[in-house]
Design a protein that fits this description.
146 residues, mainly alpha, globular
């Protein structure tokens, strides 16, 4: 997309050292306008990861509600996963919800490259946030898929 570097730069400037109030205002503006994956991806990527992590459920809901295309969903799940690796949600339920949502969406994909891009991030997230038996289940699912 031609405008992606510009949008990334804009959101990196807005998100740099932003506080929760700025995040909420930007997210409200995003919610009030036409949904484009690049906007949500940039919000997730460039706002402080602790703030994004506190909004994990809202991010997942936005992905579910506004992006029916599986390619867009996997790009956004991957970006959210990268952010959550840096700063995981404080409670366990959002962690499990994120992993379950990510695996559910991955299993709808028939594109191996998109699947694996997302799987790499979800496995790293699982390794850092779950026990080894859960990680083994995810790895078995990856092998089973291919």
């Amino acid at each position: 997309m031609l405008f992606e570097p510009t949008i990334d730069w804009l959101f990196s400037c807005i998100g740099h050292n932003a506080n929760k109030q700025i995040f909420v205002k930007v997210y409200e503006l995003y919610e009030q306008n036409e949904k484009k994956p690049i906007f949500l991806k940039s919000i997730i990527a460039y706002f402080p990861s602790e703030i994004v992590a506190s909004a994990t459920t809202a991010m997942m809901n936005s992905i579910k509600e506004h992006y029916p295309d599986i390619k867009d969903r996997l790009i956004l799940i991957k970006e959210l996963g990268l952010t959550l690796i840096r700063s995981p949600p404080k409670k366990n339920q959002p962690k499990l919800d994120f992993l379950n949502f990510g695996w559910e969406m991955m299993n709808k994909s028939n594109a191996p490259d998109q699947y694996m891009d997302c799987a790499i991030v979800l496995v790293e997230f699982a390794v850092k946030n779950l026990n080894s038996s859960s990680v083994n289940v995810f790895i078995k699912e990856i092998f089973h898929k291919f």
